[in-house]
């Protein structure tokens, strides 16, 4: 288990031993913490025939089937599709109503539960309202605001927190992927996101994007190129821009390098801080928050128009 999840696991496992697990849990926390690992272990514990001190035994028939990924009473919704539709949710609802094939409970795990369409979320409510006796539903989400309030209120909640920076830095080094403090902060301290960031060699993309943005005032013709850069991995890249604007504001307020989110690009935040008033930086940052919302996956409007508007207003 990831070291930063051990206290979370202990808390959840104690709830299970005390019989306080209930029928539905919502595991919350920043993306990139590995919350799926917690859900899977909880599922194994629920299904295990001989659990020992809050841990699955690892040897029984249920544990062996779960190890091989083919336990008939464990259903994990695939994480690769952009949305989860009503049919998938109805299917898992009826699975939970049937008797357990191995006679030791049934578990459904829904990773990135925000992907549920409105119809799917409403169908899930029905399952939550009439839970079968031995069923356990585990929802995993990083943006609680995108879940229906009625779903949130019917689940027990457990929030996983970002580990302290040294824990993340040590773990990454142990995995053979040493990272800088800047890289950890850019990924909001979520260790698996840093791993992904390093694997995709994102430093260069970030420098190009943010360098281009700082140059934009002098070279307005870059606007189209910049807009198309923001069109890919939009949320991540808007987040980088937001960090840069915040770093420029921090610089104006007299903060040192160590307090910046991206100390490696201090030159760029200094250039912004010198070239623009704090009102202007703050205004751009606030509009960026709305822009991120407007560009969320699942929004109907065309993100390019929003991105272009934001960039034009900055000019
Ligand atoms: Zn077992």
UniProtKB/TrEMBL annotation:
Residue ranges constituting the AAA+ ATPase domain according to the UniProt record: 21-163
Reactions catalysed, as given in the entry: DNA(n) + a 2'-deoxyribonucleoside 5'-triphosphate = DNA(n+1) + diphosphate
Name this polypeptide is given: DNA polymerase III subunit delta'
A molecular-function term among this protein's GO annotations: DNA-directed DNA polymerase activity
UniProt keyword annotation of Nucleotide-binding present: no
EC number: 2.7.7.7
Keywords, in A-Z order: DNA replication, DNA-directed DNA polymerase, Nucleotidyltransferase, Transferase
Species annotation: Aeromonas bivalvium
Keyword set includes Ligase: no
Gene3D superfamilies, A to Z: 1.20.272.10, P-loop containing nucleotide triphosphate hydrolases
């Amino acid at each position: 288990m990831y070291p930063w999840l051990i206290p979370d696991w202990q808390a959840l496992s104690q709830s299970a031993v005390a019989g306080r697990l209930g029928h539905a849990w919502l595991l919350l926390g920043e993306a990139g913490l590995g919350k799926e690992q917690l859900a899977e272990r909880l599922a194994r514990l629920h299904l295990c025939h001989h659990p020992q001190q809050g841990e699955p035994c690892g040897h029984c028939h249920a544990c062996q089937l779960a190890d091989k990924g083919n336990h008939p009473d464990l259903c994990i919704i695939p994480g690769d599709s952009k949305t989860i539709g009503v049919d998938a949710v109805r299917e898992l609802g009826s699975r939970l109503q049937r008797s357990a094939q191995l006679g030791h409970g049934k578990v459904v795990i829904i990773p990135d539960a925000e992907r549920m369409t409105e119809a799917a979320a409403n169908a899930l409510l029905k399952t939550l309202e009439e839970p079968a006796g031995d069923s356990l539903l585990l929802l995993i989400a990083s943006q609680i605001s995108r879940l229906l309030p009625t779903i949130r209120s019917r689940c027990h909640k457990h929030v996983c927190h970002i580990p302290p920076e040294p824990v993340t830095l040590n773990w990454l080094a142990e995995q053979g992927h040493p990272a800088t403090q800047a890289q950890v902060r850019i990924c909001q301290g979520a260790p698996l996101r840093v791993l992904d960031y390093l694997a995709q060699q994102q430093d260069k993309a970030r420098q190009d994007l943010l360098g281009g943005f700082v140059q934009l005032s002098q070279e307005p013709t870059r606007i189209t190129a910049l807009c198309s850069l923001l069109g890919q991995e939009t949320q991540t890249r808007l987040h980088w821009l937001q960090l840069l604007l915040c770093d420029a504001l921090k610089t104006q307020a007299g903060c040192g390098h160590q307090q910046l989110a991206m100390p490696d690009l201090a030159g760029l935040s200094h250039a912004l801080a010198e070239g623009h008033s704090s009102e202007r930086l703050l205004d751009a940052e606030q509009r960026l928050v709305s822009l991120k919302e407007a560009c969320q996956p699942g929004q109907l409007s065309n993100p390019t128009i929003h991105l272009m508007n934001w960039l034009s207003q900055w000019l």
